[in-house]
Amino acid sequence: MSNIRTALQFSVFLVNKPGVLAQVARALAEEKVNIVAMTLVDSQEHGVLRLVVEQPQAARSKLTQLNLPMTETEVLRLELPNAPGALAHVATLLGQNHININYAYCTGGAPGGKATGIFKVADQPKAIKILEQGVKSHREPNLHRGRGAR
Q: Among 26, 70, 95, 140, which one has the highest count of C-beta atoms within 10 angstroms of its own C-beta?
């Protein structure tokens, strides 16, 4: 975890029918808004698209033009190694320090590259401090130790 920061997350409520996600993705692409991470969960009536983007002001403007109900939330954005144990390390540090993870989602990084983790936590300032200390004192976890290591 070399990069820990806050980010703005949009939660967009979508009608659960074909083509709606495509409409949103196309509109953001037209504005040259890069999606860093996203997740889409559904219920019978609607889906909730959560996304973090590189250009939040442009995204807000475009999503507002689409007249879609949405909320904005501050979340943690972490750069993670794309290796087994990276998520476990973050969850362990937060859990040992009694910080609840309300929800999380991660990108899949390129092999050997980095992934992005988005975390909504109960105590964001404390989580940032703990994660920064965890990086300094532990550096990166030895993710390759154990079974199959050379």
A: 70
Hey, what domains does the chain have and what are their CATH numbers? 8-74 (3.30.2130.10), 75-138 (3.30.2130.10)
97-121 burial, b at 16+ Cβ within 10 Å, e below that, comes to eebeeeebbbbebeeeebbbbbbbb
- Which residues, in sequence order, are CB contacts of 112 under 8 Å at separation 6+? 82
Give tens-digit pLDDT for 89-100.
999 999 999 999
Residue with tokens 């300094």: 136
Write down the pTM of the prediction: 0.83
Residue at token pair 């983790």: 117
Average per-residue pLDDT for the chain: 87
H/E segment holding residue 105 = strand 101-106
Nearest to 35 by CA among 10, 17, 14: 10
Residue 29: enclosing H or E segment and its boundaries?
helix 20-30
> pLDDT at residue 42 above 60?
yes
Structure tokens at 1: 């975890």
